[in-house]
Amino acid sequence: MRYHRIPDETIKRLPIYLRRVIHLSELGVKCVSSTELASPLGVTPWQIRKDLSYFGGFGTRGVGYNVENLVSRIRKILKLNVVRKAALVGVGNLGSAILSFPGFRQYWLEIAAVFDIDKRKVGKERNGLVVEDITLLGTLKERRIDMGIIAVPGNAAQNVADDLIKSGVMGILNFAPRYIEVPKNVKVITIDIALYLACLPYYVPPK
Amino acid sequence: MRYHRIPDETIKRLPIYLRRVIHLSELGVKCVSSTELASPLGVTPWQIRKDLSYFGGFGTRGVGYNVENLVSRIRKILKLNVVRKAALVGVGNLGSAILSFPGFRQYWLEIAAVFDIDKRKVGKERNGLVVEDITLLGTLKERRIDMGIIAVPGNAAQNVADDLIKSGVMGILNFAPRYIEVPKNVKVITIDIALYLACLPYYVPPK
DNA sequence: TGGTGTGAACGGCTTCACAGCT
DNA sequence: AGCTGTGAAGCCGTTCACACCA
């Protein structure tokens, strides 16, 4: 199993497991079985075992998984074992919300710079960071920031993405409601919020 | 093909197509081929044709799809052909951002009520809506609001979901970083933002 | 006995090739 | 000739059953 291609779906689930084992670790739990791990997450035990087995199983048969070990192994797999820095572009309503988001810290993710095109916002402080002019995106490389978060209007998204990539960014989290074209060595994950809400009525027939 | 089970993935893509054809319709475009429709969306033409064929093809061979027809057919499939109302629970940073989100309107989605537990926010106006006390969730049924958006801290999410369901809500968009347990006739879509950013480093090896 | 690790079966979605209509 | 509609093939991911080990 060790030399298999790893499903993207597995990668998506790893942060869920990681969050849970970090929590268990903080509670002082030493050992956990796949069943105990799975049930509060809405995942099946065999799914977890399969996911972990792609990276070479690291549980103990008859016992379960060592919690501390799981934390560090999953961190390493996801490359979250060092602080990872991202730049946020766009400090509108959504950008501000993301900036004040507490959920990144546990993953050692840090928003290390904020940019906006609006001169009235530039220079102002937000969550301990000074908003920079968007023309300064080129400084990201020397600051070793290699991920970008796009929270600008749809029509600006592709330009921002291009600029981010020019500055050495290799991974983009895109909240703009657009498909973004990038070289294939760059990874884009798009979260198009309206799309999710628009699916819901299909499953909820109106009365 | 008409009596097939429809893939969830197809449903997820329909709002993307819908947004595009609404836009084309506004531009006055009358007819579009699957190739023209696909390319700006990062989707393949045969994917679009397959998706649409699940509902009984409604294009014209040798020509393409009538734009107006596509708009109304997709609206009908997604049950977005009447205004659909949702209640937002939690007016923190993220809740406020969602409330001021312009992207829902084109789908005829309306946030028709806002709730919070914080007495200091209750009674204040936000985006044309007065924030209501969360104990008033029970009034949703008589107001014919059948979808809920959860933007509260993780530890409150399950309770809010339970209350929403008690009030007749059948579909939930959940932004809280939790798995939410619901009866199986209720649909939950969870958008756990931190999870997406946490995946990114895997694809972006640190230098 | 109890819980992990994994090949194999299964199912669902995507891709393809081409038939069918205009 | 051109573009849609669709069975079939192929691929990917999940589920299962059971071998394996503490």
What distinguishing features does this structure have?
homodimer, 207 residues, alpha/beta, seven-stranded mixed beta sheet, two-stranded antiparallel sheet, 7 helices, DNA-binding
Polypeptide structure, described:
The structure is a homodimer of 207-residue chains. Chain A is of the alpha/beta class and 207 residues long. In chain A, 36% of the residues lie in helices and 18% in strands. Chain A is built from seven helices and nine strands, in the order H-E-H-H-E-H-E-H-E-E-E-E-H-E-E-H. In chain A, the strands form two sheets. In chain A, strands 5-6-4-3-7-8-9 form a seven-stranded mixed β-sheet, sandwiched between helices. A two-stranded antiparallel sheet of chain A has the order 1-2. In chain A, helix 5 links the parallel strand 3 and strand 4. In chain A, helix 1 runs antiparallel to helix 4. The model of chain A has no long low-confidence stretch (mean pLDDT 96). Chain A binds a DNA duplex (22 and 22 nucleotides) through helix 1 and helix 3.
